[in-house]
Amino acid sequence: MAVGRPKEFDPDEALDAAVQVFWTKGYEATSTRDLMDAMGLSKSSLYQTFGSKKDLFMRSLERYCAFTGQRERTLLNDRAPDKSFILAMLRGLSDPDRYPDEPKGCLLVNSTIELGKRDKDVGAYVNQRVQGALAMFEGAIRRAQNEGEISPDKDPASLAKMLVMSIHGLKAMSRLNVDRSVLEPAVEEIIQRLD
Q1: Are 107 and 61 in contact (CB under 8 A)?
Q2: In a shared domain, residues 85 and 164
Q3: Do residues 38 and 121 share a domain?
Q4: Quick one: 44 and 128 in the same domain?
C-alpha cells in the first residue's frame, strides 16, 4: 500500500492565516485566491486539507473562539474576586490599546452581523457561544454576590444577559473605530448596573 506524500505545511499555521483573512475581509468578500495566497497553499491542498470555503470558515471561527475563550478563562482565573474579572472585561472593551493586534473587531460578532441570520451553521455556532458566555458571566455574578461584591437582590441571569449583549455591542462598535471618549462612558454606565 502506497503511503501518501506528507504535508509540506503546518495546518495550524495555515488555519491561523485563514483566520486573519476572514477576520479582515469577512466571509463573503474573501475569495479562494485570498485564502490560497495567505495560507501559501495550492487550491487542491486547501480543499484536501480544509474542505470547502465554508468548512474552512467554520474551522477558522472555532479556532478564533478557542483562542479568545482561553484568554477570557485566563483573565477569570487571574482575577480575584469575580467582579474584578467582569470590570476588566468591560473596561478592556473601551481601551483600543488593549489588544493592538485586533483592530478588526471581534470575528464572532462580525460573523454574526454578516451571516448569523442567513447561515444556520453560523447562527447555531454563535448561539452556542452566547450560551457559554451567559453561563460564564452568570457564574461570576453569583460568586460575586456570595462575596458581597454585587447586591444579592439583582437577578444573576438578567445581569448576565445585559453584560453579554452589551459586550457584543461594544465589540461591534470597535470595528467602527469608535473613539474611546464615546465608549468609556457607556462602559461606566454598564458597570453601575453591577453595584
Answers
A1: yes
A2: yes
A3: no
A4: no
Residue 21 lies in a domain: yes
Name the residue among 144, 142, 174, 177 with its Cα closest to residue 158.
142
Q: How far is CA 129 from CA 5, 79, 108, in A?
A: 37, 22, 9
Q: Is the domain of 54 the same as that of 88?
A: no
- 40 and 104 assigned to the same domain: no
Kindly report the pTM of this predicted structure.
Answer: 0.84
The answer to whether the peptide bond before residue 11 is cis (omega within 30 degrees of 0) is: no
Give the model confidence (pLDDT) of 109-148 as tens digits. Answer: 999 999 988 999 999 999 999 999 999 899 989 989 999 9
